[in-house]
Design goal:
Blueprint (H helix, E strand, L loop, with lengths): L12 H14 L4 H11 L5 H16 L5 H15 L4 H10 L4 H11 L5 H11 L8 H13 L4 H10 L4 H4 L4
Helix pairs in contact: 1-2, 1-3, 2-3, 4-5, 4-6, 5-6, 7-9, 8-9
Length: 174
């Protein structure tokens, strides 16, 4: 028979620090993500719990384990190279992860500095094995898919035009 603790909340600074290190060891996280995670592990509504979370965040930053600029840079280049996402998608995802706007802008600008958006979009389509659209409905599907992946409409129209998609298929896509 297993014994259950009355609460799975962490009470001590060392235990919370160990938990935080483990969480960062599993995958990189933004400061905001880690704070959310830690708040669930302490009595966050108490002043002690809030202080504990801030203390751990400070310790991790001082030790160099938590750095939003480095996180945003790594995240941007990973999404660019592995998933072939466009810059808009990466910006949106980093915002959701609670990274500060200026940090996002700098990281994404650096990551996408020498990237040709149209070439990136084509690589995305290849990666997703998207076939050339045969009709208006398929063209609209490709258009939406590329928008979600973070590419601009100008780039998308350029790709569809090169695919010899009829001009009348464009009407209604914008």
């Amino acid at each position: 028979m297993m014994a259950f603790r009355s609460s799975n909340k962490i009470q001590t600074e060392e235990d919370l620090y160990t938990y935080a290190i483990g969480a960062l060891g599993r995958r990189m996280r933004s400061t905001a993500e880690l704070k959310r995670l830690l708040r669930r592990r302490v009595e966050a509504e108490t002043e002690y719990g809030q202080t504990l979370v801030e203390l751990i965040i400070r310790r991790l930053k001082d030790a160099g384990y938590l750095n939003d600029a480095r996180y945003a840079a790594a995240y941007s280049s990973f999404r660019r190279d592995n998933e072939k996402f466009g810059r808009r998608r990466v910006i949106t995802d980093l915002k959701v992860k609670g990274v500060h706007g200026e940090v996002i802008e700098k990281a994404v600008d650096t990551a996408y500095e020498d990237i040709n958006e149209e070439k990136q979009a084509r690589e995305y389509l290849r990666r997703k094995r998207v076939p050339k659209p045969k009709d208006r409905k398929q063209a609209a599907r490709v258009f939406r898919q590329l928008m979600r992946a973070g590419f601009g409409s100008k780039t998308i129209f350029s790709i569809l035009k090169e695919w010899d998609v009829d001009e009348e298929m464009f009407s209604g896509l914008e």
